[in-house]
Structures are given as structure tokens and as C-alpha cells.
Amino acid sequence: MTSTPKKRKASKGTVQVKSSNDRLQLVFSYSGKRHYLTLGLPDTRTNRKVAEAKAKLIEADIAFDRFDQTLDKYRPQSQQRGRSSSDGHLTLGPLWEQFVEFKRPQCSPNTMISTYGTFSGYVNRLPTHDLGRAMEIREYVLANIPLDAAKRFMTRLSACCDWAIEADLIADNPFHGMAAKIKKPKSVAADGLNDINPFSLQERDAIIQAIKIDRFCSPRSAYKHSCYAPLVKFLFATGCRPSEAAALQWDNISRDCQQITFSQAVVLTETGKRIRQGLKTQEQRKFPCNGSLSALLKSIKPEDIDSTTLVFPSPKNKPIDLNNFRNRTWELVLKGLGIEYRKLYQTRHTFITHALETGKLDAKDVARLVGNSPEVIYKYYAGKKRELEVPEF
User: Which CA distances in Å does 17 have to 49, 110, 323?
Assistant: First the structure.
């Protein structure tokens, strides 16, 4: 009777070639430590030969006591770039650059600019990129970056290092758990409610009127505020996001101006502003027009339009530059009226708050109009109603 031969374990110093997510990887042990060296090569017959050659090189170096414990000798050249610290390990700067490139295909252009572009600026300003000085990096971040942004930034740094561990670029994550220990004060951490500061109806009407008559516009200036009056009135009347209004085209509005279909937004990309299909939380939403909103749209509707004609174009007939509008009109008007400065986005908060205060719409109805969930409306707005009336028994 013959026995089935047992599968032999890899002998000490043997380097195995494996495939992980269709990428070749070398797996071996040295001095009691398990190593996973990702080559970044697709699993093909030719690349297998390259990997096997590297495996034999590592085996020989282990056997003759010349093994490079930094693994730099065995990495592809693309992975060796940026290893500028004295001990041969990657520093945070080049590590972050590689992480950003890894994330690029997975994120929208707007996210790459607004999120990773901002955080890349933070990385460039850090006093050190030495991963061994992670505590020093954290203290700098807390002292120089707003608390909410600091927490999100530390979360991204930790994600960067987690990715680098999987890519076999570093051995451990020095930022692990740091973001969770950053606690915001209760006034700030209360679900962002402190940011909801709606205008009163009197403030709303004063803002619209001041823009309409160019009240705070210099007489000698060719730049007029009045061209933006329809936009501001529309924002207060619909509660839409400013980026949605800037992207609105006449094709999105019914011929009788009784219904609006919000289905796109202006976003910032690496090549400039563009109109992107889809909204922040949904593909599209319908908004029924009341009498005053319908009249507003009819009053500004051009005779000669096509499907791509903007409802609220800039004076140069392009999508409105909202940053330019904030700086040259919005801020000046609020200051001139003596109204506390609030972001343009507060027009949305104003609509939602007053819609709830009328008592004619419940949170579910308002949520449908503005593209939020009822849970968000209950959580962020319903509890902020300024006037409470005790019912009679």
C-alpha cells in the first residue's frame, strides 16, 4: 500500500510567486518576518519570468547574507522614487502623491480638486514629512487647520498609510486612530446645526430689493448687481443648491413655467468649470412652481432659446461664477444692509426653515422639494423652528 505524498512546505529562504488581484507578488520570510512584495506587474507569462528572476535574486541574497532589508533592491524602479529619507523609507510627501494617483480613477474631478487638492496643500505645508514624527504632524495640524478639516485630513492620512501597507511600501500606519481622538466641541459637533442660520423674511426681501435696484453698486462701475436679482430670488424661492441654479437650462423648465426639473450642477474640474449631469444626492428631482415663481421665470425667459440656453447666465452669457458673485455682490449687499454675513447656501436653509414654519408642508414634503431625506430635514431643521405654539386641549 502506497501512501499519498504530503505537500511540502516552502523551505526556509524560498520565495514564492503569487497572484493577488491579478498583480504579481513575492512572498517570503526573513528573520521571522513575513514579507509581501508587490511588483505591480499584471499576471502574464512574460511577467512571471521577471518575477521568478527576482525571486531567485532574493533567495541568493538571503543565502549569501546580503539581503536588502529595505527591499529597495527588489522593487520596481517606479516604487523606488521618492525614497529620500536617510534610512531608505518613503516619506509622507511622495507617499501621498502616489496615494492621490491611486484615488484619481475612483473619484470625480470635483472631488480630486476640492478634497484631495486641498489636502495636498496641507501636506505641502507640513513642517516634516517623516513618518516617524507623526505626533508632531498631528500637533501642527491641530494648531493650524480648522478642527473639522483637521479631523478629515488626519482620516485621509491614515487611509493613505493603510493603502501603502497593502502596497508593501511601509510596514505600519503611524496615523492609525488619530482622527478618532480629535473631538469637536459640543457646539460644533452637534450635527452641524450651528451652520444653519436662515435669513428672516424681512432680511430676504431686503437683500433681493437691494440687488434689484443696484443699491450698493458704484455709479461709475460697469459691473451691476441687478443682473443677479432673478438668481437670488430664485434661490430663496426654491431652496435649490447654488450650483444647481447655475447649471439650470431652459430645457429643464416646462414650456408653461409650471415645473422645474433639477438634473445637473456646475462643478469645478481640473480644466475649469463644467456642467455635470446628476445631483448631489439623486439623479434628478421635480419642483412645482407657485404663481410668483412661475411669473419670475416667464419674465426672464428669452424669445430665442434652445435646449442648452442657461436660465441664469453671467453677463458674458456663460455659467455664473458663484465665487465672483459672492465677492462682488453678495458680500457687499449684506454689509451695506447691516445684515450678518452668511454664505449664499443659507438661501437653501432659509427656504427649508420657512417652508416648515408655514405649517402647510411636513418634513417629508420639504425633503422631496429640496432633494434631502426626511431624516435630514427632521434632524437638521425641524428642531430649529423658532416659534412653537402649544395646542389647546
Answer: 10, 39, 54
